[in-house]
Amino acid sequence: MIPPVLELRDVTKRYGSHRKPVWALTGVSLKVRPGETLGIVGESGSGKSTLARIAVGLERPTAGAVLVNGDVNRSHNGASPIQMVFQDPASSLDPLLPIFDSVREPLAGDRSVSAEAGRTRVMRALEEVGLSHDIALRQPGGLSGGQKQRASIARALVALPPMIICDEAVTALDVSIRAQVLNLLRAVQEQHNTAFVFISHDLCTVSYMSDRIMVMYLGGVMEAGTREQLFATPAHPYTHSLLSAVPPLQQGSGARSRLRLKGDPPSVTQVPPGCRFQTRCPMADTRCRQEQPALREIAPGHHAACHYAPVPLQELEAAATAAQPTA
Amino acid sequence: MTRYILSRLASLPLTLLAVSILTFSILHLVPGDAVDVLGGENLSEHDRTRLRKEFGLDQALPVQFIRWLGNALHGDLGVSIRTNRPVFDEVMARIGTTVELALFSILIALLCGIAGGALATRWRGSWLDKAIMSASILGMSIPNYFAATTFILLISLYVPAFGVVSYVKFGTDPLANLQSLLFPALSLGLLAGASFCRYFRAAAEDIMRTADFVRTAKAKGASDWRTLVHHVLPNSLLPLATVAGLQFAYLIGGAVVIETIFAIPGIGQLMIASIAQRDYLVVQGCILLQTVIFVVINLIVDLLYPLLDPRVRISGER
Amino acid sequence: MTTSDAYDAMDTFHGDDSGESPESPEAMLLDVCDLSVVMPHRLGDVHAVRNFSFRMHPGERVAILGESGCGKTMTALALLGLLPASARIAGTMQFEGTEVDLGRPEHIDDLVRRRSGIVFQDSLSSLNPIARIGTQLEETLLLRGHSRQEAYEASVRVLARVGMPDPAARMRSYPHELSGGMRQRVMISMALLAKPALLIADEPTTALDSTVQAQVIDLIRSVQAETAMGLLLITHDLAMAAELCERAIVMYAGYVVEDVPMSTLLRGSAHPYARALLAAMPRLSTPRNIPLNTIEGELPSTRETFSACPFHSRCAFRDAQCMVELPPIRALGSRHIVRCVHPCLDFSARAETHSRGVP
Q1: Does the beta-carbon distance from C283 to A204 stay under 8 Å?
Q2: Do C211 and A175 make contact, defined as CB atoms within 8 angstroms?
Q3: Which fold has domain C123-230?
Q4: What residue segments make up the domains of chain A, in order of their start?
Q5: Residue B233: domain span
Q6: Interface pTM (ipTM) of the complex?
Q7: How far is CA C245 from CA A78, A256, C58, C76, C347, in A?
Q8: pLDDT tens profile C37-83
Q9: The whole model's pTM is what?
Q10: Number of Cβ pairs closer than 8 Å across B and C?
């Protein structure tokens, strides 16, 4: 049995002191198989970036285990085989280094790769991402956002990682460039059978890129399942709200009723007892306020953390309209 | 809040200890001691030895220091060799004057700095802006004693009636007091004001150019003046507060020359005289007091920040 | 009355436009003719906006669409006179029927700013960090001669209208104490207080979470419907534009490349860039097994001057014709213009070429 490329078992991360803790992640578990893409969707405070940093070894979890290819990840400060592509293309490349040197960096600590072999790998990676040789000699300052992000992807590729984590990798790019980079990521996956974790707040991009999707809210997993399960039969009220928040690209949809959440995502310093989503859920009741729902399987491979999951959309919409006297 | 204040003040004893050791050592590096100064050349060797023994100056330095430290912890900073009065009294008698002079100077500095900076910002690029900036460079380059002596010269020549009066305590005659401190404060204040002016204008310019809320204000229909006064200037005060605090602390210690020129009986004058006469204990006492004031002023400035910028919270405060 | 090539073209359009009615001659809200903005820079002048012309009716909802560097934000800032003094602005504008001198900010202030509201993208930096929300809101009305009391009451009312919880308490808050969504509501309130004829929203939801974005979009829609003010939405997000606007102006490299009713844009617009942009956006229903349609190449530099079509190097339909000169504006309908040598005309109603070039 091939072990999953990445496995998180009940990972928890706490920042701050004992007296004033900030629970960035609570009890998150996931598995990503080789060649698979897991999409993680969530708003600010959901903990998705913390999750990425822990998966890649930049931070240690407060509790729980991180396994890479079946072994407990003993790395600290990013020596894990898993590579990452960050959101801001400008700040993730050293402004003083030519692109070639930046891309070569992950090979620096690897003694098994000779200088010559390293050079070849860098050239190949650059070719794969579509950056020409003369661009490789330039510093990041002269490159466009799309080119910089390609360079970051080349850097992630050069160590031939089993998995690449993309944390909002295309968010900062223009629409026409975004499509190019997404296609590139898909091509890379096909070519190398790399697993991906694709993190974004944009449901459409996540939907396009992922086999399985995990919805996070305030440090916990609300729903997880295949892409088809989540879009055809969403089970959690939060998933429903995220889906209805996507503008449908049709004209004159104003009159269409849409599930609206009230208020803002709460602060991570004020996680309510019981269900995390209770403050914005139209259907929250006493049980939700007292008892935290466990992530349970509602269909094969489809999990949701809600006492009443699967929740049909009509029921949720009815509850939402009832709660608001004025539409 | 109280915890924060206390934790800041907790560093004081250690600082004072370090400062006193340093001062003590440096003072004793200077050739000659009190007995040499007091006695002059005609004192016999025998008498010198006797006097030294009396003042305790014959013992080893560390021993002298420990003895001093022991006394200091009881509040006894020793006795001035020069005047035979307790050091504590000498210092406390004069500190008020220096603080008053420093306050007066800072006030002038802030007024000039903010007014100059505001005008320069409002008409940036114009001749007024260039004139103010040139004047401020001039101000920062002129040594304060030069300014002081120039003032004295000019007044004596052109406004003798005004006169440079000798110092009068505030309690005795407020008006005369202010008059006596005016030119000393101007000498110190105008020059400090010059650097405030530049800081202020730099901060204001930066905000006007880059801050989005300036654009919002204009979009609402605010005039240039209103934008400047209501939005830009209050935001430019923040960096100025730090600089002003440091300057104030510096003035407490550095008014030495001005006090001497204008014959103001403050700490500075006391220090100069005491160093010349190797009156170690007085110097020690002065420096200790100035250290305390410096730390307290920094603390006060930090506490003022939240008033100027609501985004700043005292660390540890919830 | 100012005219422009574009509107000449639309006015003289004689083709079959499937029953779309010609523009009614009522007073225009905004009539911009040949607007150009050049920002001097030591590395080369930046031509931010080039030959921008459009007309807007009262109550109309228009989106200016484009990616970074296309000039959409600069256009809005030019209309409100908020560009830095070094900017060189050419062109004319009429606001509510009165001629406005774009070179004189005070003139713009009286005529335009007093009657418009603008909502910026970054609400945190667009609000004075050391002044309370209430003070900043009241300022809008104090500047228009209202009393302190009136300003206070109106501010609380409008905060309630935009759905701010506990409006009176929020008046005393500072910007950093509010979340992004609440701050954006404050910005909208500030814009609304002046009872504007025109609301300009520049990427109002880009910095917000998706569920909050949806709330703000709903708010803008309901407020616009209630007040019937004109809406000029500036965004790169076509989906949001489709939610809120009935007309789209697509910009590229500082030029208007298409001005089209939103429904037509979504069905299949004429300019290759606009079509490609729409095709490049993944939707929830986009199948996974096909690569996304991309636009090859990079966005153009704003320092370039174009003697040919600015999009031709990236266009799938380019040919020798496109490199001859900058394509002139042509009308494809009484409300549809495009700047292209070969616009895509494959909607059934326009099977024959009905477009006419401007003489």
Answers
A1: yes
A2: no
A3: Rossmann fold (3.40.50)
A4: 6-215, 234-323
A5: 93-280
A6: 0.84
A7: 47, 15, 14, 16, 22
A8: 999 888 888 899 998 999 999 999 999 999 888 889 999 999 888 88
A9: 0.82
A10: 70
